[in-house]
From TrEMBL:
Residues 16-257 form the ABC transporter domain. CDD domains: ABC_Mj1267_LivG_branched. One of its GO terms (molecular function) is ATP hydrolysis activity. SUPFAM superfamilies: P-loop containing nucleoside triphosphate hydrolases. It comes from Aliirhizobium smilacinae. GO terms for cellular component: plasma membrane. The lineage of its organism: Bacteria, Pseudomonadati, Pseudomonadota, Alphaproteobacteria, Hyphomicrobiales. Pfam families: ABC_tran, BCA_ABC_TP_C. This is ABC transporter ATP-binding protein. It comes from the Bacteria. InterPro entries: AAA+_ATPase, ABC_AA/LPS_Transport, ABC_transporter-like_ATP-bd, BCA_ABC_TP_C, P-loop_NTPase.
Length: 260
């Protein structure tokens, strides 16, 4: 199944790209010569079997790991040697960077705290709650975007697992990322939450690029415009889901089933 063209709201253009990206751990080459183009207003999936190098590519793109070779460009700027906090400030945000939900705070306060972070990597705990009041409108907007209006004043610890993950996405969106990287956003979720989070990702990708590692192939088929398949650190195939799922090498290497 291909994501319908009418889902594309803004002109796609490359916002994040990698060329010849490689990473060795000692003698082991975990990522080999990877070229990637991530486009604005699109959801791009990175898939592949366990150990294919997906997390390593994420860590390279967000600068948590330094590449052994290759280059990375974000919004026209070479970020190959830029620090993770600087690339976060430039708009490349990975969900776990700020995904710590404070269990004792309400949904609203979690989002307000996220909104006052300068770059998602630190929090000014000494700010009085009153100083956060000016953030209420934006916080409520985000809470509405992710569908947490009913839980606005609930304590985060009381939310279900799925709703907590949704709150994490809201706190990530508080940084207004231009490129959002999500590592297995559906992991551990039930069908209903998967539907909700799929809708949120579809919605937020109308105005930004999303790159996600995802094992759930029906989610990939449902919401991803572009799919890159990694195997043993190398790109095996690329294209829309309909194309890569028909690729015999992909079926053999990764999906291996008739219904993939
Ligand atoms: N810090 C490290 N030191 C040594 N080897 C590593 C390191 N990080 C990852 N690797 C190896 O690199 C390869 C790719 O790992 P990576 O975690 O990127 O794969 P993945 O596709 O994310 O896998 P999974 O789907 O299981 O999370 C694996 O063989 C892994 O053991």
């Amino acid at each position: 199944m291909a994501v319908p063209a009418q889902d594309l709201h803004e002109e796609p253009r490359v916002v994040l790209s990698a060329r010849g990206l490689s990473k060795s751990f000692g003698a082991f080459l975990a990522v080999r010569d990877v070229d990637l183009d991530i486009e604005h207003a699109r959801v791009h999936a990175l898939i592949g079997p366990n150990g294919a190098g997906k997390t390593t590519v994420f860590n390279l793109l967000t600068k948590f790991l330094q590449p052994t070779a290759g280059s990375i460009t974000l919004l026209g700027t070479d970020i190959t040697k830029t620090s993770p906090d600087k690339v976060a400030r430039m708009g490349l945000v990975r969900s776990f960077q700020i995904s710590a939900v404070f269990p004792h705070l309400t949904v609203l306060d979690n989002v307000r705290v996220a909104l006052q972070r300068p770059n998602g990597l630190s929090t000014q705990f000494w700010l009085p709650t009153s100083a956060l009041d000016r953030l209420n409108d934006r916080a409520d907007e985000l809470i509405e975007t992710v569908g947490l209006k009913r839980e606005r004043n609930a304590i985060a610890a009381d939310l279900s697992y799925g709703r907590k993950r949704v709150l994490e996405i809201a706190t990530t969106l508080a940084l207004d990322p231009k490129v959002l990287l999500l590592d297995e956003p559906m992991a551990g979720m039930g069908q209903e939450d998967i539907g909700t989070v799929s809708n949120i990702i579809r919605e937020v990708a109308k105005t930004r690029a999303v790159l996600m590692v995802e094992h759930n192939l029906s989610v990939v088929a449902d919401i991803c415009h572009q799919v890159t398949v990694l195997q043993r650190g190398e790109i095996l195939a690329e294209g829309d889901y309909a194309t890569v799922s028909k690729d015999e090498r992909v079926r053999l290497a990764y999906m291996g089933t008739e219904d993939a």
